[in-house]
Amino acid sequence: MVSKDTYIAVLAGMGGFSDGFALLLGGSALLSLSHYFRLTAGAEGLIISAPFLGSIIGAVAFGRLADLLGRRVIFLNVLLFFLLGSMISALAPSILVLIAGRLMVGMGIGGDIPSGLALVAELSDSRKRGGLLAIQSILWGLGGASAALVALPLLSLGNIAWRPLFGLGAIPPLITLVLRREISESWVWKVKRSEVEVRIRNRGRYALMLAFTSASLFAWTFILAIFANYTPSIMVSTMGLSKAYALLIGGAQWLGFVAGGLMVLRYCDRIGRRILLIPATVGEAALLYASIFLLRNPLWISLTLVVLWILGGVGYVVNSVYSAELFPTLLRGTSSGVAFSMGRLGGYVSTLILPMLLLSIRLAGVFALLAVLMTPLALTCPLIAPRSEGKGIDELEREYY
Question: Max Cα separation, the chain?
Answer without folding.
Answer: 62
